[in-house]
Amino acid sequence: MFYSKLYAPTLREAPSDADIISAKLMIRSGMIRKVASGLYEFLPLGLRALRKVENIIRREMNAAGGQEVVLPLIFPKELWIETGRWNVYGKELFRLKDRKDAEFCLAPTAEEGITDLVRKDVKSYKQLPVMFYQFGTKFRDEIRPRFGIMRAREFLMKDAYSFHADDADLEKYYKTMFDAYTNICSRCGFKFRAVEAASGAIGGSFSHEFMVLAEAGEEEIAHCECGYGANTEKAECLEIKYPKETENAAAEVYTPSIGSVEEVSKFLKISAEKFIKTLIYVSDGQPAAVLVRGDFEVNEIKLQSLLGSIELSLADDKTIEEATGAPCGFAGPVNLKKKIKVIADLSVINLQNAVVGANKKDYHLKDVNVNRDFKYDIAADVRKIIKGDACPKCKTGKIDFARGIEIGHCFKLGTKYSKSMNATYLDTNGKENLMVMGCYGIGVTRILAATIEQSHDDNGIIWPDNIAPFEVIIVPVNFADAKTKEATEKIYKELSSKGIDVLIDDRDERAGIKFKDADLIGIPYRITIGEKNLANGNVEFKARKNSKEAVELLKPQEAVNKIISIYKR
Amino acid sequence: MFYSKLYAPTLREAPSDADIISAKLMIRSGMIRKVASGLYEFLPLGLRALRKVENIIRREMNAAGGQEVVLPLIFPKELWIETGRWNVYGKELFRLKDRKDAEFCLAPTAEEGITDLVRKDVKSYKQLPVMFYQFGTKFRDEIRPRFGIMRAREFLMKDAYSFHADDADLEKYYKTMFDAYTNICSRCGFKFRAVEAASGAIGGSFSHEFMVLAEAGEEEIAHCECGYGANTEKAECLEIKYPKETENAAAEVYTPSIGSVEEVSKFLKISAEKFIKTLIYVSDGQPAAVLVRGDFEVNEIKLQSLLGSIELSLADDKTIEEATGAPCGFAGPVNLKKKIKVIADLSVINLQNAVVGANKKDYHLKDVNVNRDFKYDIAADVRKIIKGDACPKCKTGKIDFARGIEIGHCFKLGTKYSKSMNATYLDTNGKENLMVMGCYGIGVTRILAATIEQSHDDNGIIWPDNIAPFEVIIVPVNFADAKTKEATEKIYKELSSKGIDVLIDDRDERAGIKFKDADLIGIPYRITIGEKNLANGNVEFKARKNSKEAVELLKPQEAVNKIISIYKR
């Protein structure tokens, strides 16, 4: 395609309300325009990239046996009443009335629609499992639309729903979809992690978020090079083992008015890693002592989940004194005044010659040893993960932290929707059963934003090979020159015949402007045809991701072959 | 693809609310399902056909230099206030509010959106002309949604908008788009007519409707084999010439109490074709006599347009007597009592020896001749066209009537939207001008319904080659038979390698059921592989459109070659 025929108005500056690098660059490169808060138009370049992402996803959905469908965008209230979501879903749901005052919503997801579709025609175990997917506009009335198309009110989503005879079949299929999502992320060129996550308003019992690692991410995740990833609040911490030491005799030390681990450590000149911090919590009215290493923090989400507590909080001073016999700052596991539950984090159960509070004002105990000097009731992972912790998956890698952009989500929904909507099938014995469901979403438009967050430089976007709106840009320095034109057209023809998307910058502009635009819109490979080089039988080849200097002089055919081999065409 | 892996639940009976053959067949063949009044789901087969139509349209839009974009579906009220459509558009417009009570509509068309997009970035004549198109869901709260996806409340539309420096450029481009629409209709396999039409609520001064000829059409059109088509109310009638006769002397004849042409014709034994019917109209208060041949009817739309009248009606008895001197039934152009305007239809200006009312109770005149016995003020086409009339375009063909389904519409919008939204550009002299606009819509989902209305039989759909969800269905009578399976796979492979969409009916069903389903879903070509035929080296080949009996026995390779040659792959 000729650049002169392409509507791609580039801007020197992004508008002031573009609040994130991907939004700035998509607007500057003429890929999107803003209509109103959270509402965007896609221009040709943006749409081309979007369609590439769509096709990557479609291919994987088809490979996973999916059936592509299109559901309406407006859904009647009645279906949403059946599942109860009409009343539960808050202001994020756009609602409207028709001319007869019947109520509808603009679908933010389509569980109701798809379950209604399935219950109409699927009656027998022979028709199961079945998976449906669609690419559809979704609507969410965000309280604060921002970040360009990343958190828009209208966006393109691929949503998929699978229906199964039983849990076992769903679990098996979940793995297939998990792999499909992994493939999609890889083909989009993402550095990403599949993160175990708690489910949101959609419901269900088990789920993974697919997180693209990028500064602009709204969530913090702990990850390892081995592929492990988890929300930092859910990331597992392993049991810590220490070199064997000779156990010394425990001894009381005077620590006048010094309570915090940091102060005591400094005072005693003993590293905080040798401390056992004792925190008194109250779980549903019952006090409990929680022991973590001095340099770690308690993860209250893990603790709450361990204890099954409805209400959990740190104890007040009075409760601490009643339980330990000492004021706050001197609690320890040895000789607690009151018999309370003692929970030892996996960081302390192997600690030797440790420092603990003495349960006595202004005193600590040193050289305390677990089992010898005190016993615990439960050993469990109840601490916050930190950078450098051992990876719970590969055991050898070190945990690092990153921000993540959620671009996909796999859920096991179970029978939440099939139950409320009575989606049943007859099994081999003619018995009626509820179908078991999974659901799988991807923010298609969001993938573009996430890609740019992860892949850009000061000059603009750096599209990954597979989702670039054009794969190659040919820049004839002077397209009016007959030989340049001929060489341009020859290269164009050869690449196009292999199905490679080529843009020719035929504009009557200076080379500098053409390079700037090419960099801004981020085409992965550039072939520059200058008269002088051409006279020597050469063209310039440059990959967008490489630095300015990494320009190669190649024969035109070499440049063509190089691109064909990159794209494996 | 294997039929067993395809979700295409076929039904023996259509639901009772399917009110048109295309709706019945799309539901029975598992292409669509109804969610609620005017809201439909597309299942895989329907979606495949839809995508084919989309691609036919996309190809033509790109060839016409179009820029594909995607606009939001929700638009803020402010844009619609600018053009005044917020207040003009009635209950068909779905309106909604966001959480901040800001008002929006669901776009039924996108003139506001596209004009807003263009005025942001198009500033110079150098950027014109430019044409944008999109495939987008459209919403119209129809007062009576019906006819399946033909008149739905949510549907897929391709809407396109062009922007020009002046009228001349638009007129030139309009022709390009007209041709593109003609190509689209041809490639979809339609019998169709491009019909000049008055514009609706969208506005504009000139427009064509693309009408598919089918019984279920909501409009009546006059058409000729030469390609001419027009709304019957707008179709032009040519001047009629008659063989030269000797002019007889006019004579009064007594026609007691006989007023109507039919009665007088019978009474005088003179054909109605020799009568000049004189009707007295009142146009904005002024009476006028309108003369048409006895066997024709006055077309009041043409008359009103000719006279430029705001109010037009047949005169009452008193006005008739005042103008003619006789009661209703005896009016004629000779010796009118009052000097009123006489308008002669092109069917009477050449009539010789005609019968007319005598402007005298119970009398007619015969052998009246134009110019000799009376004069008229205006000769014009003011009659209704009838079947058998000469075609106004080719002059030789005969007009026939048909019902038409409107699937597309081309409009010259002019400056209606650019003016209200201030979409201007600077011309070569640096002067600010309004852009001139055209708009071009196609009902993409409606095309599927129109296709089926035009192409079906008692057994089901007959998809045209280019938009069939699958192009070939292979029916192995017994897929469990190893040789059958091998032959099936070989044919499948060869056809697929040419990009032909093949469905293999691998289901464990009787051949009769497979044939019934293949006919119902309407795959254009069927290859049946039976063990007995295969033993003789043959397979059966049948085109869906041909009768049951038209089955050919071919070698597998012959069948493959035949299909490849049909699809020119």
TrEMBL record, chains A, B:
Quote the subcellular location field of this record.
Cytoplasm
The record's listing under SUPFAM superfamilies reads:
Class II aaRS ABD-related (SSF52954), Class II aaRS and biotin synthetases (SSF55681), YbaK/ProRS associated domain (SSF55826)
> What EC number(s) has UniProt assigned to this enzyme?
6.1.1.15
Which UniProt keywords are present, listed alphabetically?
Aminoacyl-tRNA synthetase, ATP-binding, Cytoplasm, Ligase, Nucleotide-binding, Protein biosynthesis
**A Pfam match:** HGTP_anticodon
- PROSITE patterns in alphabetical order: AA_TRNA_LIGASE_II
**Family matches, as CDD domains:** ProRS-INS, ProRS_anticodon_short, ProRS_core_prok
Q: Which NCBIfam families has this protein been placed in?
A: PRK09194.1, proS_fam_II
Q: Which family does it belong to?
A: Belongs to the class-II aminoacyl-tRNA synthetase family. ProS type 1 subfamily.
Partners and quaternary state? Homodimer.
Q: Kindly provide the name given to this protein in its UniProt entry.
A: Proline--tRNA ligase
Annotated organism of origin = Endomicrobium proavitum
Name the gene for this chain. Answer: proS
